[in-house]
Amino acid sequence: MKQYLTQLIVVIAIGASSISFAASSKIKVHVNGMVCSFCSQGITKKFKAHPSVEDVKVSMEQKEVDLTLKDGKDISDSEITTLIKDAGVNVDKIVR
Amino acid sequence: MAFNQRDMLDWQVLYSFERNLSLGVDFIRDNMEGPDRYFLLPRISWLIHRWNAKDSQANIYVYGGAGAATKDGLTKFAAEGAIEADYETRKIYLSGKGTWVGADSFDPLHVYQLRLGFAPYLAEFDDVHSWLIAQAQYFPYASEEKLRVGPVLRVFYKSVLWEMGVSAQGSWNLNFMVHW
Questions:
Q1: Bridge partners for B60 per DSSP
Q2: How many angstroms separate the CA atoms of A28 and A95, rounded?
Q3: What's the burial of A43, exposed, middle or buried (CB within 10 Å: 0-12/13-18/19+)?
């Protein structure tokens, strides 16, 4: 019984860590001022150059920048805010 | 944006070393009045302020530079200054610009420009974007065609932009821009 309980706890722990790992691999950044894609090309350029970012998708309609992170990597909110500002627009909110 | 047309050539190379500052150089060939004159002007541009709202962006820029101008075999010290402002949403675009270029003992070259544009369709980030723009340019130093009014078609895709326009008097203008 104790053995089964231990195995169950281990399985739940692995599952929980997998869930938290998957939850942090995508970040949605809501931006202000993104009305010109020619002027905002720096967004994809700057994030694709970041070592933690796997992919970047930008939506003018949704006013969003969707980041997909590499396995085991993360990028801080302050880094995101700086890169977005360097690209000429502002962060409205970051959703993880 | 530059003022490329049949009697003026305006090439610019700019590098943004800060988000609100860029260094660059302007090369201008102007033969609107008399013989060709050439200006080579290293310059600095400053984004004074940017307003980023949910659905719009507005900017004010100034730039200035100093270099040399040549005409009829004479080379003189030259300087330039300009102020530019714009407001844009995904559907409309409004901009105004005043540029002054002068050289010792040469008549100054100054240009004022107003633009009002609209996007016939809303494009996504990786789509081809098109704008129809009504443009008015005023060249006070020109003896003919001081005022040039006409349509401009702007098309851009990712980091490449080009514009083609024509005035009511038949003067064409053409601009091309690439972001690296």
A1: B49, B85
A2: 5
A3: buried
Amino acid at B155: V
Task: Flag whether pLDDT at B84 surpasses 90.
Answer: yes
Chain A and chain B share a number of CB contacts under 8 A equal to: 60
Reported as a single tens digit per residue, the pLDDT across B36-64 is: 899 999 999 999 999 999 999 999 999 99
Nearest to B175 by CA among A38, A40, A60, A44: A38
Interface contact A38-B125, CB threshold 8 A: no
Selecting from B57, B126, B161 the residue whose C-beta is nearest the C-beta of A35 gives B57
The reported pTM is 0.84
Token pair for A71: 């396995």
Contact yes or no for A41 and B158 at CB 8 A: yes
B165: distance to nearest CA of chain A, Å? 19
DSSP state of B5: B
Q: Which residues, including other chains, have CB under 8 Å from residue B155's CB and lie 6 or more apart?
A: B128, B129, B130, B131, B161, B162, B163
Structure tokens at B103: 């050289």
Residues 35-94 of A with CB under 8 A from B: 35-42, 58-61, 63, 85-86, 88-90, 92
Element housing A57 (H / E):
strand A53-59
